[in-house]
Structure formats: C-alpha cells, structure tokens
Amino acid sequence: MKRxxxxxxxxxxxxxxIITAACSGGTSTDKTNQTGKNNASSAQGKELTGxxxxxxxxxxxxxxxxxxxxxxxxxxxVSIQVNGGGSGTxxxxxxxxxxxxxxxxxFAEEKNISGLTDHKxxxxxxxxxxxxxxxxxxxxxxxxxxxxxxxxxxxxxxxxPDQKITLVNRPESSGTRxxxxxxxxxxxxxxxxxxxxxxxxxxxxxxxxxxxxxxxxFSYLNDQSVxxxxxxxxxxxxxxxxxxxxxxxxxxxxxxxxEPTELEKAFLDFMMSKEVQSxxxxxxxxxxxxxxxxxxxxxxxxxxx
Amino acid sequence: MLDQTALAKEQxxxxxxxxxxxxxxxxxxxxxxxxFMIFAAISIVIFLGFKGLQSFTKNGVSILxxxxxxxxxxxDHSNPQYGAFPFIAGSLAVTLLSAFIAxxxxxxxxxxxxxxxxxxxxxxxxxxxxxxxxIPSVVYGFIGLTVLVPFVRWTFGGLGFxxxxxxxxxxxxxxxxxxxxxxxxxxxxxxxxxxxxxxVGATRWQTIRSVLIPAALPNLxxxxxxxxxxxxxxxxxxxxxxxxxxDLPHSLLDPSATLTTIITLSMGETTFGxxxxxxxxxxxxxxxxxxxxxxxxxxxxxxxxxxx
Lengths: 305, 308
Known about the structure:
The complex is a heterodimer of chains A (305) and B (308). Chain A has 305 residues and is of the alpha/beta class. Chain A has helices at residues 2-23, 25-42, 61-74, 87-96, 141-149, 175-183, 199-208, 238-242, 262-272, 274-283; strands spanning 50-56, 78-85, 101-104, 116-130, 138-139, 166-169, 194-195, 212-217, 227-228, 230-231, 249-257, 287-288, 294-296, 302-304. Chain A is built from ten helices and 14 strands. In chain A, the strands form three sheets. In chain A, strands 1, 2, 3, 4, 6, 7, 8, 9, 11 and 12 form a ten-stranded mixed β-sheet that branches. Chain A has a two-stranded parallel sheet with strand order 5-10. The model of chain A is unreliable at 1-7, 9-13 and 19-45 (pLDDT under 50). The N and C termini of chain B lie far apart (61 Å). Chain B has a single domain (81-307), classed as MetI-like (MetI-like fold, Orthogonal Bundle). With 308 residues, chain B is an all-alpha fold. In chain B, strand 1 and strand 2 form a beta hairpin. Chains A and B meet through helix 1, helix 4, strand 7 and helix 7 of A and helix 2, strand 1, helix 6 and helix 11 of B.
C-alpha cells in the first residue's frame, strides 16, 4: 500500500504530462509528418517507408481509406492515416502543411487557395433525388431550376400528386451544393430549405419526408428508398456521365503542396493504378478517371478528350 | 555562530527530506492543476476573441449587420451577407422554450424525490436521471430524427423539422441538470422549515408551495439557468431535428436554425482564414459571450441565496 502511495504522485504527474502532450497534438503530428517526409525521401529506390496523413472530403474518405489499407499491405513499412473533416478542412490543412494530402470535392481555385498540385483520382456523379411517393422519374432542367428556386411549390404542377415540395439543401459552403447549383441549376440560387451536411442524413430525410427533393451522389442511390431523377430524359448512370451526356458530375481531388514527395507520388500512382480504378472505385460508387471521355477545368469548361 | 550554521544546514537537509515526502510536492501538483485549468480557459478565450473579431476587423463585416441582419449568404462571392439574427433568435427561442418545459418537470421531480417519496422515489428516479445524463447527444439527435420528427409531422402537420422538435429534444437533455440541482436545493433546506410549517397546521402541499419553494427559489433558478446554458450550447442533437433553415421561424412548427448548428454544418466545408470561416468564429465568440451572461446570472442568483 505504501509503495503504491509513493508511486501515485509520479503517476498523476505523468498523467498530466500525457494530457498536455495530447492537447498539443496538432504540433506533434506536424513533426511526425516532417520526419515521415524525410524518411520517404532518404529511402531511395527499393522499399518505401514513412507515414502519410491525409484529411478532407468525407465523400472521398472511404475510397482513400480502402486504398490506403491495400497500399499498407503491399508496403508494410508505410503508415497511412485518412481523416475526414470536409473539403475545406482538407484544403486548409494541406496548404498549411499539417497534412501531406488534402482531399477535396471542389477545385482549390474555387476556395481561393493556390500553390497546391491537383491529382484527380475519381469522378462522382450527382443527381436530384425525390421521395418515392412523388412518383416522378424524369424532370426538365428548367423545371428543376424552378423547383429549387421556389417558383414551383407543389408537385401537382409537374404532374405529380397534390403535395407541397420540401427542399433538402446542403450548407452554403458545401462542395456538393456548389456543383449541383452550378451544373444542375445553371448557377441559380436555391430557395431556403432544410439543410443537412451528411449524405446519409439527407437521404434519410428525403426517404421519410413526403414531397422532399434533394441531391445525392450516385453512390447513395443504390436502393429504392429514394428515386433518382433523370434530367431532360438523360438517366443518371455511369455511362452517361462518362460520355458527357449527363452534366452533373465532379472530380474527386487529392491535393499535395507543391510537387509530391516520393511516398506521396507512390500512393497517388497507386490510386490511379488499374487495381484501384477498376475495382475499388466502382465498388464504392465512384466513376473511374480512366474511363472518362470528357474533361473539365477549374473554370467549368468541358472538353472531349 | 558556527554551531548555528551547522544547525541551519541540518534543517535545510531536513526540509529537503520533507520535499521528497510529499508536502511541497503535493502543493506543486495541486498548483499545477489549478494553473493549467486557468491557462487553458484563458487561452481559449483569447484565441476565440482573436479569431472571432477577425471578420469584423479584417473582412469588414459590420457588427450591426451580424447581430441584426437576417440574410445569411456567406458563400456569395460577389455580395456576401452575414446576417446572423435568425440563428441568434433560433438559439434563444429553442433555449427558452426547452427551459419552459423542463423547469416544471425537473422541479416537480425534485419535489417528488425529496418531499413526497424520499425513500423509494429517490431510488427509482435517481438512476433514471443518471441514465438520461449518460445518453450521448448524437443518440438523442438520432432518436429525434427517427421518432420525434415523423411524430411531429403526423400530429401537428408541417415538415416535422421544427422549433418544436428541437425544443422537445433539448428539454429532455436538460431535464437531468435541472432535476439534480433542484433536488440538492430542496435537500439543503433545514428541516426546521418543514417542522415549523407543519406545527402551524399547514398540509404537506401548503408546506411545499408556500414555504419550501420560496425558500429554495434562488437555487431553483440557478438550476434552470444552468439547464439553459447547456441547451444553448448543444449542437449535434438540435442540428438533426431543427431543419437548419436560414429564415426566421414564425411558428413552433417552422424549421429554424441555431448558432451552434450553423457552425457544425459549415465548419468542415470552409477553408481556414477565409471570410466564411471567420464569421463562424464570430458566431463562436457570440456563443461564449452569451454563456458569460448565463454565468453572471447564476452568480447573481446564488449571491442572493446567501442573504436569505
């Protein structure tokens, strides 16, 4: 007992120290990142070592996590940590140097951040989705704009049941919203509606609220709980996005600060490898970069490859 | 003289021994804890103040527009507008309304536990209250989204996402705070008050109504204000049921938004240092200031207790 008592004070002290260390976690990760970089660049050639910290877009997080697991299996001395936080967080942190790779749904230019190198790793298609009871499967783009700007407020005006329309929006600064507003609504400002940031919550709300309409990435449209809408008769399918017929899609970006280091480059190459692009990307509901027949720049100009 | 120095040296050695035995060491540890807490609190306040004021000093947002404007368009690059009044109103409305429901319930429960059925009542209610404290706010929000929102929609009409839903979720969340502090308030009343009332022929209800509640009132108010402070700062559960609409609500069934829900919704999507991000910090600062007002109110109420 006496021995225990003697030890209790140092124990408390060390606990306090651990807590303080944990509180200043931000800076300590910085340091480990730094060492990770050094290790990676010093190990010329054969075996990759070091650690990568990645943060940002929650939409891209599952794919990068899965790819990171696989990459670590192939290179046991590499450690890859993938965090969420949102596109804005990812872009801020990579430009501050707090993480090595920042995931984003939007071009860094749209958030006024420069000095980053863009690596597009996948494409995501987005379409409007309605509550199944609305019974509409196809909508004209002009009508879609009217619905979202509040000019049409009842589904009966579009041949549906006599049911008030409820809009489900994303937050003002959300990447998905920016893409949908720009490409599906031609830049029109949507009217006020319920706002949620997580895709799963948005889907749940659309599925449960009568007359609700919102927008979701294709990967969330895999069951019957919400009805995805065709726009101007073009169905929201991977093929239509790849051929450029369906206009509402966006790149998933992985940004590095300046040119990628050896380890970063190895991982980004892995993301673009056939292994990831043809299996993981499609399995998670994204569209592979390799099959895109059109491309778009930061200003939104679409060109055929 | 020489003897004295030798003695002093010995004492010095002795005092060194005392140091290892813990008296001073304990003091250092306790002081370190206290200073750490003070340091943490002050640095958070300074940081928040610094970041929160940046949108007014650097981005040129007018404080008047922020506090009274009702158009919220921070992402509009050509003409951004930062009117946070609907969120301030939403926060205050949902806080006051939930206190309005939770205060009578909590105080009633406290009277039940201390005056009506002190033995079995307390045994029954105490664990229930502890259980309510233990439920994480995400779970409250998820239950609210799955059960409460459809319930409100079918019973009262509207979308279901409403001030009413937010208010119900919050009132359940702050119920334990109010109940446990109110229970303490009644328990700390001297028994002579009860005996005196019974002696002049008061019934139990008369005793509670005219003697015990007035005597405990300052503490009961503290309980309510603490509950309100918690409701004011709650973000996650409210975000899931309130709808997060940027317009001023006109009825209980209208969806609304609060300061906290707008911060959690927009946080991850904005980049550090941008004006969209800075305005969120300003909202955080506003939350802190209003919490200070709650604390001052509690201070004032508890200082009144000492006089009575």
